Amino acid sequence: MTITIDGVDGIGEIQPGDDLAQIIAAKAPWLRDGDILVVTSKIVSKAEDRFTDADREDAIDAETVDVVARKGRTRIVRNALGLVLAAAGVDTSNVPGGRSLLLPKDPDASARRLRADIRVHLGVDVAIVITDTMGRAWRTGQIDTAIGLAGLPAIRDLRGTTDDHGAPLDVTMPAIADELAGAGDLVKSKTTRLPIAVVRGFDIAPGEDGPGATAMIREQNEDLFHLGAAEARQLGRREAIHARRTVREFRDEPVPSADIAAAVAAAVTAPAPHHSTPWRFVHVTRHRRALLEAMRHAWIRDLRSDGFSDAQIDKRISRGDILWRAPEIVVPGVVRDAAHPYPDARRAQAERDMFTVAAGAGIENFLIALAGRGLGSAWISSTMFCPGVVREALDLDDDFEPLGTVAIGYARSEPPQRPPRDANDYLLHR
Prior knowledge:
The protein is α+β, with helices and mostly antiparallel strands. Helix content is about 35%, strand content about 20%.
């Protein structure tokens, strides 16, 4: 296969309302069936009068759907077309009068119109690639990429075929529209006043208009890099608390001990009174059966003394089954050895409550940190009702006060969405 790339000379300065197809037909009457026109989006935007007198930053704001990354004054944004690029595609180079130029409103539609109009003027069937210059993550420099397309598939899908050695191709999908855009830019550039290149000899002949360059835009939920590093961290901080959900069914998959240790390290950053460290977390492994059986027996004794029937007791006891099923369990607790003594009950209770609050903050940190590592959890209160049993089963000191048990594992399925709550129902103003 031999491919040639030629520039179209004499296009000149495009004005709003100009008939691009007529101008191209006059300057390139030598076009023939199968040619691919690689057209700089700037001349399309000028012909479509996409000028704006707005301040450049205001124009970028107006074209931005969301900010992907920011560094200094540079903004990488997603615009209404779904394109991720610097400054939302707002351009001030080679634009007269200090104005700004926006991208075509619908580049794929612009490509289809230009293709049809060239067919009218010259009677030839060509394909159109409308391009814009973009930077690339991880690499210096810019290349032209396709933002509008008509007459060619955007992607050559080779999935399901094999290579020369017979190995299956599972993910190979060359973005031929972008490859053509880059090839065309070898002869056209911002400084040569050659806004159009003609690629001849490509092995895919023009056909139906097709879905256009839009087909190459990756859905955000499939995009591993849809946010910059700083923006991803900021989003993570905002959503970290909401990521913690109660999970009661787990996959049969081991939990790395290092993840539990890392969650404990995050837990003990919680506030605590008197610069103390009252948190304790017991990762229960070899004594797990002994602990759960002792707690079960204690619970049954309590329920029988309360007058519950055997059927009612069985139903109540089944609530603790999650602690048997979970891949791992951790018993959080509090040690009040740094508490100040008070002679009166009021202040003594307040001192005790301070340490309970600090321990609760640590437990919440623990649960959030687990969620941040992709682990589900459920806080179960049962150890609080039998602290002596817990201390004996786990051989803990008398000053350890258990504050529930945390079941830990990878969620079997995604927890249901939590219904929103109105902060005004819980926020008082005085």
